[in-house]
Amino acid sequence: MLDAALYSGETPALVLTYAWDRLLVDPIPGPRGPANFNGLRPLTRSVQTVPAHATPIAPAGSTLPRLAAELPQTFALIDPHHGAEGIIRQLEELVQYLEPDSVDLLDVGGDILAQGDEPTLRSPLADALTLAACCELNFPVRLLVAGPGLDGELPAGVLRDRLGPIALTLTAEHVQPVSSVLEWHPSEATAMLAATARGARGLCEVRDAGLPVPLTDEGPSVHEADLDEALNRNQLARAILATENLHEVEQCSREICGFSEIDYERNKASWLGTQPTPKLDPEAVLHQLNDFEANAQRRGITHTTFRRLTEAFGLSGTQRQDLRALLLSIRPEQYQAPLWHIPSEA
Q1: DSSP string of 51-91, one letter each residue
Q2: What is the tens place of the pLDDT at every residue in 102-113?
Q3: 346 pLDDT above the threshold of 60
Q4: pLDDT surpassing 90 at residue 277
């Protein structure tokens, strides 16, 4: 979405990204590496692209092949299993091979600007790794933060003094090139970014914990931020600069942040493995929806995500799209793409 908005008419970007879809899509905790896919294409010695025909090796799951099929950008796989040193190597090879006009490091929400000890921080590991690697790259990197606060981690008010000028304010027109992807992709932060660009305002409840995230006029803004300042602030990023494997990165995260988000996924995956898969019963869903919305109204919630509804109803990640289709057939007027709108109490 940002590539189309900032570089329209030019060659579509290469998007270097993690295959880390969380347990809603991928039942295996942590990020996937090249060994978890069939059909990847070598681009450089350390970088492989994910074409549309690539497939994750079961039981792993990934949204990257479908993204590659539906979008013009080329998707390449960040491999965090060799620590920051490995990602630095990937970036160096890409810059040498592609000779790009620009390199942008994009974070939705802004937790890349964290110190590492904030009590609301939930997923600092991937951000810290890419920040550390980009700061070691001998090529200018522009750090961009889209939708300050929209990942439900650092509030927008905390981020305000850490952000630089606005590079772009997204609009409904900017969302259009990815609108079909938003109908199925599970990213809550991107869903809220797109919704605010389309004009949604209110309070959105996300994740299994039901975190409330404000949808404000700041939501669709994309800010520049100072890369070196971000590294100096981010204790975890500085600590992992010389790491050579993911185990070292996790250990640093436990010591600095007090946790590893992959440990959380391991514990949750273990619990999910003991739970039966319930049947998606339309009548039961309608009762659950009515109860959920009544409670949400009392909390001042105006929107939620289909991931949140899936987990609140005790359903599995594989049932999310079926639940979405059912809800749209029952109450299509409450769909404010790509979020579910909760009307105020009568």
Answers
A1: -TT-EEPTT---SHHHHHHHSSSEEEE--GGGHHHHHHHHH
A2: 999 999 999 999
A3: no
A4: no
Query: Could you report the per-residue pLDDT of 298-317, keeping only the tens digit for each?
Result: 999 999 999 999 999 999 98
Question: What residues does each domain of the chain span?
Answer: 2-170+220-239, 282-341
Q: What is d(CA 57, CA 50) in angstroms, rounded to the nearest whole number?
A: 13
Sign of the C-alpha dihedral computed for residues 145, 150, 153 and 159 taken in this order: positive
* CA-only gyration radius of the chain, Å: 20
Q: Which residues contact 9 (CB under 8 A, 6 or more apart)?
A: none
User: Collapsing DSSP states into helix, strand and coil, what is residue 227?
Assistant: helix
Is the pTM above the cut of 0.85? yes
Which candidate, 72, 111, 129, places its Cα nearest to that of 250? 129
Helix 246-256 to helix 125-136 angle, to the nearest 10 degrees?
110
Residue with tokens 């409840």: 205
- If you search the block for the tokens 């991928």, which residue do you land on? 26
Gap between the Cα atoms of 75 and 293, Å rounded: 38
